[in-house]
Write a structure and sequence with these properties.
Structural class of chain A: mainly alpha
Strand order of the largest sheet of chain A: 2-1-3
Number of helices of chain B: 6
CATH superfamily of chain B: HUPs
Number of helices of chain A: 13
Order of helices and strands of chain B: EEEHEHEHEHEEEEHEH
CATH class of chain B: Alpha Beta
CATH architecture of chain B: 3-Layer(aba) Sandwich
Radius of gyration of chain A: 24 Å
Largest interface: A-B, 10 and 8 residues
Shape of chain B: globular
Distance between the termini of chain A: 43 Å
Helix content of chain B: 25-40%
Structural class of chain B: alpha/beta
CATH topology of chain A: Fumarate Reductase Cytochrome B subunit
Number of domains of chain A: 1
Helix content of chain A: 55-70%
Shape of chain A: globular
Strand content of chain A: under 5%
Oligomer: heterodimer
Number of domains of chain B: 1
CATH class of chain A: Mainly Alpha
Largest sheet of chain B: 9 strands, mixed
Distance between the termini of chain B: 56 Å
Largest sheet of chain A: 3 strands, antiparallel
Chain lengths: ~325, ~260
């Protein structure tokens, strides 16, 4: 250990760097709980004030939907939601493998014949990256179908803000959550402002950002387009892709927590059984979908990926 | 046709390999132990013969400590039919001559038409064991083949020479070694891994084999760690860089 030059107490940064991983996690969790506690107290204080009460009466938390907005969640949306969840889990896992694996167990090179044929020669990539890209393609396909049907059926009105009062309503909903006086859940008909904004950001900002940054880093991007690559440098994509993944993970954590904490059976019935009833059907289908994801998670290892990968190319060491 | 493939368990070349300070022997715990890649290629050559002619029988033969059983299982999961594991504490540290004598004794009982091996292992890099085995068995050695054709009682192939290449042929039985330019090894598939557990592996000790009991070991008298690389010299151009560079090259006899 080096001797400090001055006899000053260690700074926060040095102390933080001196902590082990678990100590860091513990300190972060503790700090978060304290911050949340302060937030709750401040929110309760605020919601007790008359002007804030007036504000919350004007903006109850959810904006009014346009006339003709559909009610309920149709079965196709349930399927889309399941497929999306299935892919995103495996995409995050395979992306993590691409990022952390130093010596891939196998590599893959595309057969330049058949369906996907290019002028240039295919490059050799790791099996992890092949899996990530293949899942990406399926996820994007699923997303395109989702967007088309979303706009064709008018379901878009549920997750795209249609008036500016979504922002004060989101603040109102946020205050209600934070003051532990949670807004009445009405997910079958209308989402509250905060929910609406989060879903909008996830579908229309985070997902396209993940695709744009991923595409920029992939072999499919035109490497020789000088002007384009100057405007959109690969470093920018590298810097953004990972934080977007962090956003998705944070979204999943908060989303699942709130789904389960605000009337789990009813919420699960909305998305998985297309019904507003309170029974165990939605929960059962949700549990089955988790089993499917767990099975895919287990099968996503070189031994089982190799035979699939060799259908589209050559798998080598 | 019956093919015996010699395999050796070696430390993974992708990791840092070290010697045990006291004996100078290989430290088997320092890195992951794997089937030497060149042996996987030799096995692949045999497996391709078997792919074309299902009556081919492939036996893998390894000499090594208990852990070498894993290497044999790996070869079985790739598609070999059975294994022979020469396991004997008294053979630890055997030199090439002793190893070849023991391997030859183990091969004698198998009635092999072809003995396939890699040209040299990645740990010892002696490359003499297959030739010694051939000598013990009184068989021709067809060494260092880049491409192998097995069939009809002969083995033929191409080997690199100092200038150009040679096409060589020998009558079977023969000992054949392959280079890195031969077949790229396949991955074991799920079925292979499951069936490998049921394939027979005979474990034999030196006493079970018809081989002289005289041990022969390589004794390491001294060894030292490779010194760390020294930093190079950096020449800043103050007008004389050209002269300095030329001086450096002349000084080190590089021109």
């Amino acid at each position: 250990m080096s001797t400090p030059k001055t006899k000053q107490a260690a700074g926060i940064t040095e102390r933080w760097n001196g902590l082990g991983l678990w100590a860091r996690i513990g300190v972060s969790a503790g700090a978060l709980i304290i911050l949340l506690g302060i937030g709750v107290l401040v929110a309760r204080l605020l919601t007790g004030l008359d002007p804030v009460k007036d504000f919350m009466a004007t903006y109850p938390g959810e904006s009014e939907l346009p006339a003709g907005a559909p009610v309920g969640i149709p079965a196709w949306l349930g399927w889309q939601h399941f497929l999306n969840m299935f892919f995103i889990f495996l995409i995050i896992r395979s992306g993590w493998a691409v990022r952390t694996t130093k010596r891939p167990a196998a590599h893959w090179i595309r057969n330049n014949k058949g369906l996907v044929k290019t002028k240039g020669n295919p490059t050799k990539i790791s099996l992890d990256l092949w899996f990530h890209l293949t899942l990406d393609a399926l996820w994007v396909l699923n997303g395109i179908v989702f967007i088309i049907v979303l706009f064709a059926t008018g379901q878009w009105m549920r997750i795209v803000p249609t008036s500016w009062d979504v922002f004060p309503n989101a603040i109102s909903a946020g205050l209600q959550y934070l003051s532990l006086d949670w807004p009445t859940d009405n997910g079958w008909v209308n989402y509250n402002g905060l929910q609406l904004l989060t879903y909008f950001i996830t579908v229309f900002i985070a997902a396209p950002l993940a695709i744009a940054t991923g595409l920029r880093m992939s072999g499919a991007w035109p490497k020789n387009a000088a002007t384009l690559n100057k405007v959109y440098p690969i470093q920018a994509a590298r810097a953004l892709h990972f934080p977007v993944m962090i956003y998705f993970v944070a979204f999943i954590v908060v989303h699942v927590t709130l789904v389960l904490a605000t009337g789990a059976l009813r919420n699960l019935n909305h998305m998985y059984a297309s019904s507003d009833a309170v029974n165990w059907w939605g929960f059962g289908i949700f549990a089955a979908s988790l089993v499917v994801i767990a099975a895919a998670w287990f099968l996503a290892q070189p031994l089982f990926l190799r035979p699939v990968a060799s259908l589209m190319g050559k798998v080598t060491k | 046709m019956k093919i015996v493939v010699l395999i050796k368990q070696v430390p993974d070349t992708a990791e840092e390999r070290t010697l045990v300070p006291a004996t100078g022997w290989l430290d088997r715990d320092a890195a992951d132990n794997v089937v030497d890649e060149i042996n996987e290629r030799a096995l692949e050559v045999a497996l391709r013969v078997k792919d074309a002619d299902k009556s081919t029988e492939i036996v893998v033969l390894a000499m090594g400590p208990e852990e070498a059983a894993k290497a044999i299982r790996k070869a079985l999961s790739m598609g070999a039919d059975s294994g022979i594991h020469v396991l004997d504490g008294g053979l630890a540290g055997s030199d090439a001559a002793r190893t070849a004598a023991v391997l030859a004794a183990a091969i004698r009982g198998t009635g092999a038409d072809v003995i396939l091996a890699g040209n040299e292992s990645t740990d010892g890099r002696g490359g003499v064991v297959p030739a010694m085995v051939a000598e013990h068995l009184g068989l021709p050695l067809v060494g260092g083949l880049n491409a192998v054709v097995l069939g009809d009682g002969t083995v033929s192939g191409e080997r690199s020479a100092d200038s150009g290449s040679l096409d060589v042929t020998a009558a079977l039985p023969a000992v054949v070694t392959v280079t890195e330019r031969t077949a790229e090894a396949r991955f074991p598939n799920f079925k292979g891994i499951l069936t490998a557990k049921r394939k027979p592996v005979a474990t034999v000790a030196a006493a079970d084999l018809d081989v002289a009991a005289t041990p022969a070991r390589a004794v390491v008298l001294s060894h030292s760690e490779r010194p760390a690389r020294e930093a190079g010299r950096k020449i800043e151009d103050d007008g004389t860089a050209g002269t300095q560079l030329a001086g450096y090259l002349i000084e080190n006899r590089l021109v």
